[in-house]
Design brief:
Layout (H helix, E strand, L loop, with lengths): L4 E3 L6 E3 L1 E3 L4 H5 L2 H13 L4 E3 L8 H10 L8 E6 L14 H15 L4 E6 L8 H13 L3 E7 L3 H14 L6 E3 L13 H8 L2 E5 L22 H5 L8 H17 L3 H9 L5 E6 L4 H8 L8 H11 L1
Parallel strand pairs: 3-10, 4-5, 5-6, 6-7, 7-8, 8-9, 9-10
Antiparallel strand pairs: 1-2
């Protein structure tokens, strides 16, 4: 197995096509031993890109990820975390103000046990804070060496364009990455966000590439989520899982079987057909899931296969 790597935006930084996230997993419902083994397996399989956030289990995910990664040379991996979410009960304990960004960056570094963060995301857009204030705070962190690159998550194309204009006007560090949701059942970024990314040099690092497990093919009916699955644990709503979607996954599984790959690998390879996607961010509650997902980096889908997939999805 040879992991492939892609440049992050216009930067010189290279990240693995498959990356490991820790939302709803590390520090949460996944046993710590399994979480640690998943991180170790990811690293051993060539994943160099690890993602977390301050709000994931109120810092517990950062602590576990940072502690586990300390076993490896710091230059060998890319560590991402985020700022925005509510971290306390005070009026300044969330958002993208200079005060909150500075305080949370220092708090994240302490929890991670690291001297710097490779990639620091604005976890959401904050209409109450001027973009200039947010970008200047992030630029100061970059100049201080506490952050190497900056990005955003779930921003619209217009919001990102405004941020780029502000950065250029005041010679501030530019965002190089956006983290949106993207999968076979959620393709909203194809209309405006990917074209903007291509034009402006902003990569997409996409989360929920397997639609929180739906695209693994393990769900046979809406009413019977497998024991221990994410759907069972999180009590999914109808917009997340439906009989129509399950039927489409079953049709897609036929293609996967013909290619001799897993349904999850087909879904990830389909995402990686987009050159503007630098990495697909997967979660894993068991090491075996990491190994399975990593193999998608070796899969290239032909034009006729992509056409068959499109017919099923449309």
């Amino acid at each position: 197995m040879t992991m492939k790597y892609r440049r992050l935006g216009k930067s010189g930084l290279k990240v693995s096509e498959i990356s490991l996230g820790s939302w709803l997993t590390y520090g949460g419902y996944v046993e710590q031993d399994n979480a640690v083994k998943a991180i170790q397996t990811a690293y051993d399989q060539g994943i160099n890109f690890f993602d977390t956030a301050n709000v994931y289990e109120r810092g517990a995910a950062e602590e576990l990820l940072g502690k586990t990664l300390k076993a490896y040379p710091r230059e060998s991996y890319v560590l991402a975390t985020k700022v925005f979410g509510k971290m306390g009960d005070g009026p300044n304990d969330m958002g993208l103000s200079r005060k909150h960004i500075m305080e949370q960056c220092h708090a994240s570094l302490k929890r991670l046990g690291h001297d710097y963060i490779d990639l620091y995301y604005c976890h959401r857009y904050h209409p109450e804070t001027p973009i200039e204030e947010t970008l200047r705070a992030l630029d100061d962190l970059v100049r201080q060496g506490k952050v190497l690159y900056i990005g955003v998550s779930m921003w619209t194309a217009a919001q990102m364009e405004a941020a780029l204009g502000t950065a250029d006007r005041y010679l501030l560090d530019r965002i190089v990455v956006n983290q949106p949701v993207y999968n076979m059942f959620n393709r909203h970024i194809e209309a405006e966000i990917i074209p903007l990314g291509v034009e402006k040099g902003i990569s997409q690092v996409v989360y929920s590439p397997l639609a929180q497990g739906l695209l693994t093919g393990k769900y046979s009916t809406v009413g019977q989520a497998p024991e221990g699955s994410r759907a069972a644990k999180l009590n999914w709503k109808e917009d997340q899982i439906s009989e129509e979607k399950i039927m489409k996954v079953q049709e897609l599984s036929v293609i996967a079987n013909e290619l001799g790959i897993k349904m999850s690998q087909l879904a990830l390879a389909w995402i990686l057909r987009q050159p503007n996607v630098a990495s697909a961010l997967v979660g894993a509650s068991r090491p075996e899931q990491v190994t399975e997902n990593v193999q998608a980096s070796e899969v290239t889908l032909t034009a006729d296969v992509l056409e068959r997939i499109e017919r099923i999805l449309s």
